[in-house]
Write a structure and sequence with these properties.
Helices cover 10% and strands 35% of the residues. By secondary structure, it is mainly beta. It has two domains: 6-389; 393-468, Immunoglobulins (Immunoglobulin-like). Strand 43 (449-457) and strand 44 (460-468) form a beta hairpin. The longest helix has 16 residues, at 6-21.
Length: 469
Amino acid sequence: MKKSTIPLLFLTILLLPIYLFAQCPTGNVSLATQAEVDQFTADYPNCDKISGYLLINGADINNLSGLSKISEISGYLKIANTQTTKINFENLKIIGDDLHVFDNQLLENIDLTQLTTLKGKLSFFQNSNLITLDLNRLTSCEDVYFKKNELLQSINLCKLIFVERGFALLRNSTLNSICLENLKEIKKGQLQFLFNFSLKELNLNQLTTINGGLFIMNNDVLEKLDLNQLASVSHFGNITVSDNLKLTHLNLNNLKSEVYDVFIGRNQSLKNIDLCQLTSIKRYLYIEENTSLNSICFDDLSIIGIKLSIIGSKLENLDTFKNLKRVGFVPDDNDEFPGLTIVGNSTLTSCASLCNLLNSNGIKGYFQISNNPSACSSLDEIKSKCTTLSIDNELVDDFKTYPNPTQDILNLSTNLINPRYTITDVMGRILKNGIIKSSIIDISEFKSGVYYISLFKDNITFVKTIIKK
């Protein structure tokens, strides 16, 4: 007996509209007007997966509620130049490329609370009325960029662990809260927090690696900056912490790897800097115009590639630089670059920790030392103290120079055998050096003035002041 196909045919006809309405268009979707948005939701009322990108860009678009069922976008999602006040992507979990939301001047709220996967950049720019942003399920992305969202007060990225490139938070003037409590690594870029005038606290206590640079600048009310687990900033990266008027402590105690430059400046309330385990700075260390600064720790620092500058602090001594062995690598034909600047430190009364550097000619370039209290107010004062310290430690050595003052010939008397020597001027420039094999050194070519002769043997340094008539 042949079975009837009528029931099956009837069921197929009945389900066909449901099947068709459940489909999404193939490929990319671009919506430029509210009419196009409305037509899309009418044609695809149950669309949940976009196989390409989704571009929403149109000045008359004011309602995107019909897109709330979308759960996955294979390409990027870009929402720009709309007039909508609310964007509801409450079911969106996956974006296969970038997420860009910019120039939506009326946007107050966007629901992305289910977003777990973003394979490209996260960017919010010039959304003037956006107040809060919750991305609490997002764990990683390629790049993070928030700029000029003028009313944005809070950002929830509590689950974010990894950023492939950079993280920039720029000119969000009312932002007072951002959660990054699980962020561990910035793999290939910089971490920047600039001109966020209402941000009081920045908790990055899980962050261990930045393979770029660290810039914390012009955050006027920032009081607490927690970076105590940061262990590595790539050697091409800079550390800049400046113009944060309320910041009192800077703790980078776990940072050990070489960094490129360090600039800590104009933080008026800063009292303490802790970089105790940092061993090497490739170029510059600037600590300038931190007018409340009374404590710094660079105990393990041994090399600064070009320059050390300490200006306008409340430091009393420089004892933390006791292990510093070298500042500068100025070429032999160019000694005009300042290697050491110590200026305007109103309470600095002890510079004895620089004696090892000075006595071993470990500073290349010239010196700028002025406007500090007695004992640190000039290179002559520091050198004089270093000379006293060296002579006190001579033990059995009877290093003598004569005549002193001298016109042309300097005679040496020492029981050291073939020691190395250098003669430097008051700016620290090396004028003559070598190994002493004779008791006579000709300084007839020197101009009249004060010079320093240093002898080195078995890690001991002896220094004498000589006067050329």
